[in-house]
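This entry is listed below:
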Amino acid sequence: MFLIHRLTLEFYANEGREIGSWRLYSFLVMLLGWLSAIGGSLVANFQEGPQLATHNTGAFIFFIGITLYFWGQLLMAYSLKPGLSPIHLTNVRLLLTFTITGLVIFHMVCLFAEPFVGKDANGNTPVKPTFPNNIERYNSSSPFYSNHLASTTSEWILALMIEFVILTFCYDFSWTVLHAPKMEQLELPDEEKTNETDLRSRFETSSRAIDAYDYGNSSLLHLPVSQPAYIATSAYGTYSRQPRDYSSTLERSNPGLPRVDRIHPGMPTIYRSYFKRHS
């Protein structure tokens, strides 16, 4: 629906035609189409059995909304010149929309008025049976069978007619080309570049410190004494003693400790930097 709206605006812009308030009209028709799509989503995601009320509400929104959407498109197609679509294609849509409108009315009458329900010997309408799973199934001998058959058949034909109308818009898009949106990566400010370089440098020196911290123990870290001291104090705060075993318990008691134990030493530097910033 959005693409049809955009196609309408682009077509008349290329034709040099100012359509004025029809732009707003096309936008409102698009919103109506979105509303019908929400109804269709409710029908698809809420089953008729356990969620009958939601399913029926979605079906009502979809059928009414899409019918009004088609009429809105037809009004714009017959009013604006030159036409976006050939006149014979618009006439086909008009015929299909008339059929859809009639089917919607017929379907609603069958659901609520139940004109095809058989009468009993006294001429009274029988009591409608209830079903434990909310899915109606009638035998051919049931007085509700004919009405249920008419309602279900009209619903399926209605859905097929809607699909036919949607397929007619393939012609409008057959001479349209869509392009992916352009993206441009901006340069980082000098301050962020400095921070990025500093982060990479820190993790180059601390990537081998896995699950072990000992302030001043260079044999364990394979680093100069000043390196772990800088990592543990300058960047993350001063601690009197760094634990050898960095576990989840120590993490809770010392939340400021470096979390390089969660970074695989073989991981590329750029990924280590990413995970550190988001940890």
In short: Residues 190-277 form one domain. The chain has two domains: 2-173, 190-277. The CA atoms of residues 63 and 104 lie 7 Å apart.
